[in-house]
From TrEMBL:
Gene responsible for this protein: Prps2
Pathway: Metabolic intermediate biosynthesis; 5-phospho-alpha-D-ribose 1-diphosphate biosynthesis; 5-phospho-alpha-D-ribose 1-diphosphate from D-ribose 5-phosphate (route I): step 1/1
Species for this entry: Dromas ardeola
Pfam families: Pribosyl_synth (PF14572)
Any one Gene Ontology cellular component term annotated for this protein: ribose phosphate diphosphokinase complex
Gene Ontology biological-process entries: 5-phosphoribose 1-diphosphate biosynthetic process; purine nucleotide biosynthetic process
Name this protein carries in UniProt: ribose-phosphate diphosphokinase
Keyword ATP-binding found: yes
Catalytic activity: D-ribose 5-phosphate + ATP = 5-phospho-alpha-D-ribose 1-diphosphate + AMP + H(+)
Length: 142
């Protein structure tokens, strides 16, 4: 996935490989690639307590990244998440609005959201009418 996104954006990439001994507990995290003097963008499907993503942000800054952003599909932000984000070196944490974020945004100015209601509505319409949903991968309704 990372290679595909980087190719489409015509940028180089690095990745963080994480190993877990059990669910919700990262045992080891390894940065693969060079981020020195670069803006780093962490991409993930969801963030719950934000321990992993904040640890990754710290690792990127330690490796020389000049700025760190996070882009997440689902921002759950439970328990210590907001405190962790506020104390992490993120410029911004961008999430979709699959979960309401207004209350979390009051306590964390780094959180921003992208409204995906139109694309979800179009995906539902296409599914209902038996049309291609994969069409949306290259034709996003605004």
């Amino acid at each position: 996935r990372v290679t595909s996104i980087a190719d489409r954006l015509n940028v180089e990439f690095a990745l963080i490989h994480k190993e877990r001994k059990k669910a919700n507990e990262v045992d080891r995290m390894v940065l693969v690639g060079d981020v020195k003097d670069r803006v780093a963008i962490l991409v993930d499907d969801m963030a719950d307590t934000c321990g992993t993503i904040c640890h990754a942000a710290d690792k990127l800054v330690s490796a020389g990244a000049t700025k760190v952003y996070a882009i997440l599909t689902h921002g759950i932000f439970s328990g210590p998440a907001i405190s962790r984000i506020n104390n992490a070196p993120f410029e911004a944490v961008v999430v979709t609005n699959t979960i309401p974020q207004e209350e979390k945004m009051k306590h964390c100015p780094k959180i921003q959201f992208i409204d995906i209601s139109m694309i979800l509505a179009e995906a539902i319409r296409r599914t209902h009418n038996g049309e291609s949903v994969s069409y949306l991968f290259s034709h996003v309704p605004l």
